Amino acid sequence: MLLELNKNIDLCKVKCDLKCQIDKGFYKNNYSFEINLIYKIIHEHTNYESYQWQLFGNDRKFVDKEIQSLLISISALDRSLTWDCLSVLSRYRNLYNLRKKITNTYFRSVK
Known about the structure:
By secondary structure, this protein is mainly α. The chain has one domain (11-106). Helix content is 68%, strand content 0%. It is built from 5 helices and no strands. The chain has helices at residues 11-23, 33-44, 48-55, 60-77, 82-106. Helix 1 crosses helix 2 and helix 2 (33-44) crosses helix 5 (82-106). The chain is globular, with a radius of gyration of 14 Å.
């Protein structure tokens, strides 16, 4: 798999950090704490940021498989996140066409 969760994530520490950031007003969205937690893990505790544009240069099936695998790893950290991971997966599926277009328009040879 291209996308990987960092090893030895301290989920309690990540949750505390997120709560602190929310309390300080750094998050200006209407997502639940759990959805914000999943996004925080994806963007700060995986290699997603390094590969996101390369990823969306691939076909939908490949991208879906990569995102699914990453979200399964996240739900393994805390089983209560499973349903929220499905919501996040749905969002990534809905954004595929836009991200694919951006990748094809602005990036050369991302594969």
